[in-house]
Amino acid sequence: MRGVQGAADRAVQHARAWLLETEPGSRVHDVQLDPRFQHRGVDLLWELPSGEVRGIEVKGDRQATRRRYFFELISNLEKDTPGCFLYSGADLMVYVFLTQGELHALPLPRVREWFLPRAREYALKHAFTQTGAIRYTTVGAVVPVRDVAEGVPGVITVKLKRPAPEKLGEKPGTPDAAGPAASIPGEPGVSGAPEDRGPRRTGT
């Protein structure tokens, strides 16, 4: 679990640095542990010099060859709780491919609007997470980066100045930063959902 949390922390650090660099004079507030924002799927508040405040959701993905997003549709299949892709009130999803050293800024409402009518075009994948005696299933759609870039205006891709290296002993990721490594059946070499700073509405 420490490895998963480390990946989520690095993704948040990259997101924070990019936001501050994009808007000099802006401020970033970490609200990951604030219950007022956890259920809204918001990790950071980005306060612009103009006074406007934007909600940011952060995802960290450690798959070395993955060029696809994992859009979480069900956070806990056993309890039928919706995934953060559907309920998040964030303005931006900052999706960090840690191994590739790449950051993608997705205008979340626009991406969601584009995806929902096309949801059946993309295979659903299951990721399993074990937390103590409790095992739950996260379900998401795996969507190629290219499809989103071509279909949604305003997607930004940035090469990170220094790719975040894996730390010794870290394992492939799990959804919602909970439990040991997750796995997707029928897809060798590709682990489960990217890491965020959950848990959020998992019902566990």
How do the helices and strands line up, and which of them pair or pack?
Blueprint: H1 2-22, E1 27-30, H2 35-38, E2 44-47, E3 53-61, E4 68-76, E5 81-82, H3 84-87, E6 92-97, E7 102-107, H4 108-115, E8 124-131, E9 134-144, H5 145-151, E10 156-159
Parallel strand pairs: 3-6
Antiparallel strand pairs: 1-2, 2-3, 4-5, 4-9, 6-7, 7-10, 8-9
Low-confidence spans: 163-191, 198-204
What is the CA-atom radius of gyration, in angstroms?
Answer: 16 Å
| Mean of residue pLDDT values | 81
**Looking at the structure, what is the overall shape?**
globular
Proportion in β-strands: 25-35%
Major β-sheet, in short? 6 strands, mixed
SSE order, one letter for each helix or strand? HEHEEEEHEEHEEHE
Per DSSP, the total helix count is: 5
Helix content: 10-25%
Through-space gap between termini? 16 Å
Q: Which strands sit side by side, in order, in the main sheet?
A: 1-2-3-6-7-10
How many DSSP E strands? 10
- State the secondary-structure class: alpha+beta
Label this structure with key terms.
204 residues, alpha+beta, 10 strands, disordered C terminus
Concise overview:
This protein is α+β, with helices and mostly antiparallel strands and 204 residues long.
Written description of the protein model:
The protein has 204 residues and is of the alpha+beta class. The protein is built from 5 helices and 10 strands, in the order H-E-H-E-E-E-E-H-E-E-H-E-E-H-E. The strands form 2 sheets. The chain has a 6-stranded mixed beta sheet. A 4-stranded antiparallel beta sheet has the order 5-4-9-8. The chain starts with a helix and ends in a 45-residue tail after the last strand. 38% of the residues are buried. The C terminus is likely disordered.
